[in-house]
Design goal:
Blueprint: H1 5-15, E1 27-28, E2 34-36, E3 39-43, E4 60-64, E5 67-76, E6 89-96, E7 101-108, E8 113-122, E9 125-132, E10 145-150, H2 152-155, E11 159-162, E12 166-169, E13 178-180, H3 192-201, E14 204-206, E15 210-212, E16 214-217, E17 226-230, E18 235-239, E19 249-254, E20 264-270, E21 281-283, E22 296-301, E23 310-316, E24 322-329, E25 334-336, E26 339-345, E27 353-359, E28 362-363, E29 367-369, H4 379-388, E30 394-397, E31 400-403, E32 412-413, E33 418-419, E34 425-426, E35 430-431, E36 434-435, E37 456-457, H5 458-475, E38 482-485, E39 490-493, H6 501-519, E40 526-528, H7 532-535, E41 549-550, E42 559-560, E43 563-564, E44 571-573, H8 578-595, H9 600-619, H10 693-702, H11 709-720, H12 723-726, H13 742-763, H14 780-796, H15 804-813, E45 856-858, E46 862-864, H16 873-876, H17 880-901
Helix pairs in contact: 4-17, 5-6, 5-8, 5-17, 6-8, 6-9, 8-9, 8-10, 10-11, 14-15, 14-17
Length: 902
């Protein structure tokens, strides 16, 4: 029988003399990871997230030719574990530089399983070993194994070889048979919602699509080729996407029974070109530049790359030819993380036209220099992303329906007291006249899906209202491309209806907040899914529930008019706190000021509700939750501001909340379960001072300086404009300048002077001159906030604050940032993010105008922002509040540049 040509080719590739470098010598670096030119291995430089657990960025990780190809290398109890499945407890970590070895001590305490994970250098790569303290418990035989997960976007469609002979192609779509793998009898008890989710999914796991002693991945790609050989159990290759679209390819070996030392031994050999250096990356704005303003590209370089000392700008001519327009020096390189950076200033190029930047052998895509370069950067965020996130209405675009009218059965008071998934918590079993499980009428109006999921996060709703109200009032934002019919629950794109889109969106958010005050008398935590099956839903939000109000007197499949026996209605988490309450008052006041003249009845309702809530809050302050401990890390709290215990680690097992229907009983105590934390920003005292500042400001503006709001604003001013507060809320005081005295105006000006004196020093911490991304979530939001803040400070004090701060921040979002030069606003710019963690991510798609978080640092020093993969929420998830902020920032950049042109 003749051997197929492709198999022959793959065999030749795998056996070539230069395929795997025996000369590759890994060394432990000063940052305590194993490294050689072109290949790095990390081991537990970070740990599993306390809320989201498995984020695909911990345990053993491998970086090959500038790409993180593998993560989560450790013992797992399932072939393709999901986000909340059990992970080991990290007990310690050691680095042996003399032996070029990394070691982690780990355990599954509930199974009395303790082991050591070692990664050590050996010629050509690394040796990975698992050493048990004692033989594997019988119950874990056939269950416990060493897993290493490989990034699908790198390997899909590429070849693999098993034992040097059996060839295959990594599938683009999971196709493997599924089997049922039931939980172990004495497996640690999970929170009820995890148990219910596993049961609903049928306890399924895929079978492997390749098995052997040696597996070579990416045989046909010299930049991603890596071979793994097992000295112990067979290697099995699984497709984790069979269980969830965000799954990775999993290479796994089961731990044999009876073995301790060397229970698992793998030899990993990457195909590394010894002369490889990462190509230069020219970071620039993908929408171009305005003639009279600074134009600076940042060039990201491999430290070993010896590049030219100059760069060029070429003009793209009508016939497709390139004409030299400018050549200039690049600055000496400066190190940051694992790369070095130079800058190329081409500000002298001012003639309108199309241009590219050329450095070494790299040439950027074309970008314009134009007086209206920023004119269209924000519209997709307003008329696409924010529109597509609208809840309780259908959203149509031409032939396409983004989604139907969703969640018309909203909502029931959460019938469970205690901690839920994603950090949600219900403090009490009753709220006013409602008890847990009761339907609260009138809550099926307004609001926006928060992000890639469908819950209505209260801070996000309030932020969108305030930012769009700000954009409308500051820029006279009359842009109109939507038809919004709230009564018919219909929205249509590209169909103007005579009402500014920003105004209609402000109303859409306001009616949701008004419903809270009219029904419950206060702001709430938000509206959330009742179970993980709904929480992980992708696609049309209207298909998540049946749209009928739950009636417990009906059978599970019984329907009676607008009622059904299916308990799929979302839950209202009514837990309140002073932050939500004061923030809601501010949002309603801003909405009232925006809606005047467009919808006077709703504007009146917003203002009256805000004033009543102000008076009530002053008379009877909402207590600060006892569990809020100031002085902690404010950035540690996830979106929504609640820090939950780990739901998947044995070292931080969550409390087991009561099942629905038992809301009246106390939540069982649990060990190692931290209480909910305050919203992000409270921890350092930034917002613990003057919680009512925003409300006082917005009510002062909405009432044209009425009392007591103006007096309270003046009373708070000294506390708000301190150096610590200026960056976060103090800058907003410039919006109140018409109501300040001459003395107060001078105090504010001096505060801005002090702030600016230290700002450049802080921004110089990175080569990009913007706040760095140092947390578990990409930091684009902080940069957008900088753009807004500096616009208003420049407008008030043009002699103190340059417009270039705002433009630098906007250009950063649009491509002048680390890792790549992709615009982080989906669909905006020549090259932009087109795979985002949105609710259509299962289609490897995006929603135009979505603003992604951007790069994070894979600890200790690897900046990452994947372009070809949209399933890492910390890099790719677009939150609706981010889009609303971008509407303000984009308009700010456009206004600044047009003012200069005029």
């Amino acid at each position: 029988m003749r051997t197929p040509i492709r198999v022959c080719l793959l065999l030749a590739l795998a056996s070539g003399a230069t395929a795997f470098g025996a000369d590759l010598a890994m060394r432990v670096t000063e940052k305590n990871y194993l490294d050689a030119q072109g290949f790095s291995v990390f081991l537990y430089d970070s740990t599993y997230h306390p809320v989201f657990v498995d984020q695909k960025n911990t345990a053993m990780e491998m970086i090959l030719h500038g790409h993180r190809i593998a993560t989560n290398g450790d013992v797992r109890l399932m072939p393709t574990p999901e986000q909340w499945d059990l992970v080991a407890t990290l007990k310690g970590r050691q680095v042996e530089k003399a032996n070029n070895r990394l070691t982690a001590q780990l355990a599954f305490p509930s199974f009395d399983l303790n082991y050591r994970l070692e990664v050590e250098a050996e010629p050509g790569g690394v040796k990975v070993s698992i050493h048990l303290d004692k033989p594997l418990p019988e119950k874990l035989v056939g269950r416990a194994g060493f897993n290493l997960e490989f990034l699908p976007s790198i390997y899909m469609g590429k070849a693999y070889l098993v034992d040097g002979a059996k060839a295959g192609i990594f599938p683009r779509t999971p196709e493997d048979p599924m089997i049922k793998v039931l939980p172990l009898a004495d497996e640690p008890k999970k929170a009820y919602y995890l148990e219910d989710w596993d049961k609903a999914k049928g306890y399924t796991q895929p079978l492997p699509f390749a098995v052997g002693k040696t597996i070579t991945l990416g045989v046909d790609d010299e930049l991603s080729r890596v071979s793994v050989k097992s000295d112990t159990a067979e290697l099995m290759l699984f497709d984790g996407r069979s269980r969830a679209q965000n799954g990775w390819f999993v290479l796994r070996s089961l731990i044999p029974a009876g073995k301790t030392a060397g229970a698992i031994v793998w030899h990993i050999r990457p195909s590394v070109n010894p002369n490889w250096t990462r190509p230069p990356m020219i970071a620039h704005s993908q929408v171009g530049y305005v003639p009279g303003f600074a134009k600076v590209a940042v060039i990201e370089l491999d430290p070993k790359y010896d590049g030219p000392k100059t760069a060029r700008v070429l003009r793209l001519m009508e016939d497709g030819s390139y004409k030299p327009a400018f050549e200039g020096p690049v600055t000496p390189s400066t190190p940051w993380l694992r790369y070095v950076y130079s800058k190329f200033d081409f500000t002298p190029v001012k003639e309108p036209g199309l241009y590219v930047i050329e450095y070494a052998d790299q040439r950027t895509p074309a970008f314009p220099i134009s007086k209206d370069a920023y004119a269209n950067v924000w519209q997709p965020s307003l008329d696409h992303h924010i529109a597509a996130q609208m809840d309780h209405v259908s959203v149509r675009e031409g032939y396409r329906v983004w989604h139907g009218a969703s969640h018309l059965d909203d909502a029931r008071l959460a019938p469970v007291v205690g901690e839920q998934f994603d950090g949600w918590n219900q403090a009490g079993a009753t709220d006013g006249k409602y008890k847990g499980g009761d339907h609260i009428p009138g809550m099926n109006v307004g609001g926006w899906y928060d992000a890639g999921d469908f819950d209505l996060e209260e801070p996000a709703q309030l932020s969108v209202i305030q930012n769009l109200a700000l954009a409308y009032r500051e820029f006279d934002l009359r842009y109109d491309e939507l038809t919004v019919n709230e009564a018919a629950r219909e929205v249509e794109m590209h169909r103007p209806d005579g009402i500014p889109d920003a105004v209609q969106q402000v109303k859409h958010g306001a009616v949701y907040i008004l419903a809270q005050f009219h029904n419950l008398g206060h702001a709430i935590r938000g509206t959330h899914e009742p179970d993980l099956r709904q929480y992980t839903h992708l696609g049309d939000g209207a298909t998540k529930t049946d749209g009928r109000i739950y009636d417990p007197n009906l059978g599970p499949d019984e329907v009676k008019g607008d009622f059904s026996g299916k308990p799929d209605d979302r839950w209202i988490f009514s837990t309140n706190n002073p932050f939500f309450q004061w923030y809601a008052i501010a949002a309603l006041a801003a909405a009232a000021d925006t809606l005047k003249g467009w919808d006077d009845a709703t504007a009146k309702d917003c203002l009256e509700t805000a004033i009543k809530a102000w008076n009530d809050e002053k008379a009877h302050p909402t207590p600060l939750p006892a569990s809020w401990h100031f002085g902690g890390d404010p950035e540690a709290a996830p979106e929504g501001g609640v820090l939950a215990a780990s739901q998947g680690t044995e070292s931080g097992a969550p409390s087991a909340p009561n099942r629905p229907g038992n809301a009246g009983s106390a939540t069982p105590a649990a060990t190692n379960t931290p209480p909910p934390a305050p919203p992000a920003g409270f921890g350092r005292g930034r917002f613990s001072v003057g919680l009512d500042w925003g409300a006082a400001l917005e009510l002062t503006l909405a009432t044209k300086g009425a009392e007591p709001y103006k007096s309270r604003l003046k009373e708070l001013l000294p506390q708000i404009i301190t150096p610590e507060q200026m960056e976060f809320r103090g800058w907003t005081a410039v919006r109140a300048l018409p109501y300040l005295s001459a003395t107060e105006k001078n105090q504010l000006r001096e505060a801005v002077k002090t702030y600016m004196a230290g700002l450049d020093r802080e921004l110089a911490a990175t080569p990009f001159g913007v706040p760095p991304s140092l947390r578990t979530w990409g930091g684009s939001g902080q940069v957008v906030e900088m753009a807004i803040r500096m616009y208003f400070l420049h407008k008030a004090y043009p002699d103190l604050v340059s417009p270039e701060y705002t433009l630098r921040a906007v250009n950063y979002i649009l491509g002048t940032h680390p890792v790549n030069s992709t615009s982080w606003v989906a669909g905006v710019g020549t090259v932009s993010k087109t795979k985002t963690y949105s609710n259509n991510r299962a289609d490897n798609a995006y929603i135009p105008g979505a603003v992604v978080p951007g790069y994070i640092i894979i600890k200790p020093d690897f900046p990452e922002s994947l372009d070809d993969f949209g399933f890492l929420w910390f890099e790719h998830e677009a939150v609706v509040a981010g889009s609303a902020s971008w509407v303000v920032a984009g308009n700010a950049a456009d206004a600044l540049t047009k003012q200069a042109v005029q």
